[in-house]
Specification:
- By secondary structure, this protein is of the alpha/beta class.
- The chain is 34% helix and 17% strand.
- The protein has one domain: TIM Barrel (Alpha-Beta Barrel), CATH 3.20.20.190.
- The longest helix is centred in the middle third of the chain and has 15 residues.
- Bound molecules: SN-glycerol-3-phosphate (G3P) and magnesium ion (MG).
Length: 249
């Protein structure tokens, strides 16, 4: 396996502070700011196509009432996923995973694919995502980091593509995190940087793998986390954080 090289700052949902999250514009915004990596959320349409979208509900980012899982890809593609953010993004589309990966590759970036299944679709979402991503992603490019809060999704990713690194995501501290991370052979520990304590971070450091913290938009907080032992942060405004963190890999 190629060794995992993670930059200090990863653009969250692209560069969420500058463009509608999880859209191709957001990926381009992150690239324009100099991000080496972006993080995006992957879920499935009703007809089991992999798309890039965060919420289970459509309302916040499209203005449409309803759940993502109840709409086919063709219907989702009719929706305007940009103007909620700003008029200049009118008619921005919900990207397919394929479009997203091609854009990331065109811009020469790395990617963290967070498997964000709608409830009950934990295994299927991982399967479809890995099918698409392994078909598109070149063998000679550093592989995507595949993360999830859902252990079944990570287990599926491990079974399908063991060589691709997995990020063990935690919102709150889990007592049995180390057992789970070891079972899943996690390459990174991805934590909520706004709630994690210094003691918890010290405990995660025992695992001796990179610690990634989300979602850090404040310079002082980013500095503090790095001082405590965090290796990289996800940020909506990655430019602001890159300004103050050294680009150590
Ligand atoms: O993967 C890091 C972060 O994106 C996890 O939380 O809710 O922003 O997807 P969320
Ligand atoms: Mg995410």
């Amino acid at each position: 396996m190629t060794s995992l090289v993670i930059p200090r700052v990863i653009g969250h949902r692209g560069a969420k502070a500058y463009a509608p999250e999880n859209t191709l514009s957001s990926i381009h915004a992150a690239a324009d700011l100099g991000c080496e990596w972006v993080e995006v959320d992957v879920k499935l349409s009703k007809d089991s196509e992999a798309i890039i979208f965060h919420d289970e509900e459509l309302i916040r980012c499209t203005g449409v009432n309803g759940l993502v899982k109840d709409f086919a890809l063709a219907e989702l593609r009719e929706m305007d996923a940009g103007s909620w953010y700003g008029e200049s993004f009118l008619n921005e589309r919900i990207p397919t995973l394929e479009e997203l990966l091609n854009t990331v590759l065109e811009r020469g970036m790395g990617v963290n694919l967070e498997i964000k299944p709608c409830p009950g679709r934990e295994k299927e979402t991982a399967e479809v995502m890995l099918d698409v991503a392994t078909r598109i992603w070149p063998d000679d490019a550093p592989p995507p980091l595949v993360s999830s809060f859902q252990h079944v999704s990570l287990e599926t990713a491990m079974d399908m593509m063991e060589e691709w690194p997995r990020g063990f995501l935690m919102d709150e501290h889990l007592e049995n995190w180390q057992e789970l991370a070891q079972y899943l052979n996690a390459a990174t520990i991805n934590i909520n940087g706004n709630t994690a304590t210094r003691d918890q971070i010290e405990e995660y450091m025992e695992y001796q793998k990179p610690i990634l913290a989300y979602t850090i938009n404040d310079q002082q907080k980013a500095k503090e986390l790095v001082r405590w032992g965090v290796d990289a942060v996800f940020s909506d405004n990655p430019d602001t954080i890159m300004e103050i963190l050294s680009p150590k890999h």
